[in-house]
Model the fold of this input.
Amino acid sequence: MNTSEPAAKSITKSIAKGGIREENERHILDCAERIFAERGFGGATMQVIADEAALPKANLHYYFSSKETLYRRVVERIFTIWLEAAASFETSATPETALRRYIARKMEMSRTHRYGSKVWANEVMQGAPIIQDYLEVTLRDWTDTRIALIDRWSAAGRIAPVNARWLLYMIWATTQHYADFAHQIETLNEGRALSDAQWRDATETVIGIILRGVGLDPGPGPDAGDAP
Amino acid sequence: MNTSEPAAKSITKSIAKGGIREENERHILDCAERIFAERGFGGATMQVIADEAALPKANLHYYFSSKETLYRRVVERIFTIWLEAAASFETSATPETALRRYIARKMEMSRTHRYGSKVWANEVMQGAPIIQDYLEVTLRDWTDTRIALIDRWSAAGRIAPVNARWLLYMIWATTQHYADFAHQIETLNEGRALSDAQWRDATETVIGIILRGVGLDPGPGPDAGDAP
DNA sequence: GTCTATAGATTGATAGAC
DNA sequence: GTCTATCAATCTATAGAC
Done:
C-alpha cells in the first residue's frame, strides 16, 4: 500500500447512511432537480445549481464528474420514483379500484414531486436524449401489459369499449399537468398554491370523469363513502 | 434630409407582403420556434437558431435586436394562435357541441402546432417570465367566463355536476400532451408519427371519455354518424 | 473534503467591409 | 441586406492551496 490509497476509509464513509458523501450528493441532487426542472439541461448552469446548494461550484464537480453526469443521476432518480407509482396500477384489482388508485397516486406524485415531473417533461420535449432507452424498454413494457389488461376488461364487458392507449395517455397528461403547469394553475388560483381541499376535489373530479368516461360508476367518492 | 435616412424605402419594403424583411423575419421565427420548443429559452443559442435557419448569426441580430426580443416575438405569435383556438369554445352552443368542437380543435392544434405548444409549456414551467401578464389577464378572463358557462350547464341539469375548472384543465392537459409529449408517444408507436386514423381515433376517444365523464352521450362518433 | 483561481471553449452581441 | 471577424462576458471543468 502507498499513500495514494485512502480507499478503505473513503468507501466506508460513502456507504454509511448519513455519510458526508451520501448526504452531500443527495443535497446537490435535490437542488439540481429544481434547477433542471425549470431551465432544462442546456438552460441550467453549474453556477446556478451551486448557488441553490450554497456551495462553491468546484464542489459539484468533486461529487459529479460533469454536468451531464449530474443531470443523468437526477433523471435516473426520477425514473425510480416513477416506477414505484407505476406499480400502484395493480393488474389484479378490479377496473374501478385499479384506475382509482392509480390516478390518486399519480395526483399525489404531482403534488409531492413537482420538480421531478418537470425534469421528465423537459427531457421528453427535448427528444429524450438521456432516457430514450427507458422509453423503449421499461415504459413500453409497462404500457403494453396495461393496455392488454384494459383490453381484457373491455372484451369482458367490465368497462365500455375504449382505446386503452389513449386512455392511459389521458391519465398521464391530466395528472402530470398539475405538476408541469403548476405555475399556471396557481396564477389562475389567485396566485396561491392549491389547498388540501382543492387537491382532493381535483383528484375526485379527475377520477370521476375517467371512471364515468369508461362506463363505470364512480360512486359518492371516498369522503361521503366512508361515513356510516 | 440627410444620407442617414433611407426610411421611406425601408418602410415600404417591410410593409409590403412578401418583402424581404417580412419573409426573413417569418423564416427566422419559424426556426427559432423549433429550437426554443426543444431547449427552452436558456438552452437555445443564437448559433443553433442561425444554423437551423441557414443564416450567419449576425443576420438574426439584424432582424431581432436581442435573443430576448426574438423569444418574445415567438411567444407572442403563439399566443395569437392560441386565442383563435380558444374562440372555438362557443358560449352559444349546446354543451355537447361546445365541448366536442373545442376538444377537436385543440387536438388539431397539437398536431399542426407542436412546437408552439412546447414553447408555451417551457415558458410556463419556467414560471412564465415573459407571458405572466397574459396568464393574469387574458387567460384568466377566458377561463372565468367558461367556468361560469359550464356552471350554468350544471345548474340547469344539462351536464352532471362537475368542477368546471378541473374539467378545463383536463381538456388542456390531454390535448396538449399530444404535442408536448409527441416524442414519447411516437416512441411508444414503434418510432412512427401517429397516422391520420390514429389522430382521429385518439380525438374521438378523448371526446368520448370527456362527454361520458360529464354525463353526456357522445353518440356513435362522426364517422359512423355521417353514413346513411 | 473544501475552496480560490483560472484555463479553454462558447455565449450574446457588434463593428465594419462588401 | 449580408457576412466575416471579433469583443467582453459567461460557461464547463480543473489545478492546486488549505
